[in-house]
Write a structure and sequence with these properties.
Length: 110
């Protein structure tokens, strides 16, 4: 997993970098086929904004969160991202289970 953390109008300190890396490890624990993660942290007046672009095999997921505190924005971001990744994982896994696969399909002969 390639992790890129950038800051707009904000210096990315080692503490923030470590916090983001720990939170993104949580996403990798649920779904290990993550190719690339791009995190953008920005400050706009009194709002702290955290955005993430997550590149999976076959899909890109974009999530953003805005809060008064940067750490709270990162927490909200990871919660949203976690739900999106679990939803994608469930959808990807349900393709073959609905019909029961080839072994369980009946064949009618005339």
């Amino acid at each position: 997993m390639n992790l890129t953390i950038t800051g707009h109008h904000l210096e990315v300190t080692p503490a923030i970098r470590g916090y983001v890396e720990d939170k993104m490890a949580r996403i990798n624990r649920h779904f290990d086929q993550v190719i690339d993660v791009s995190v953008i942290l920005a400050v706009e007046k009194l709002k702290h904004k955290a955005e993430v672009n997550l590149h999976l095999r076959g899909k890109d997921i974009y999530v953003e969160a805005i809060d008064a505190d940067m750490y709270a924005a990162i927490d909200a971001l990871t919660d949203k991202l976690d739900r999106q990744v679990v939803k994608h994982k469930e959808k990807a896994g349900d393709v073959h289970r609905e019909s029961g696969g080839l072994k369980r399909q009946s064949v009618e002969l005339d």
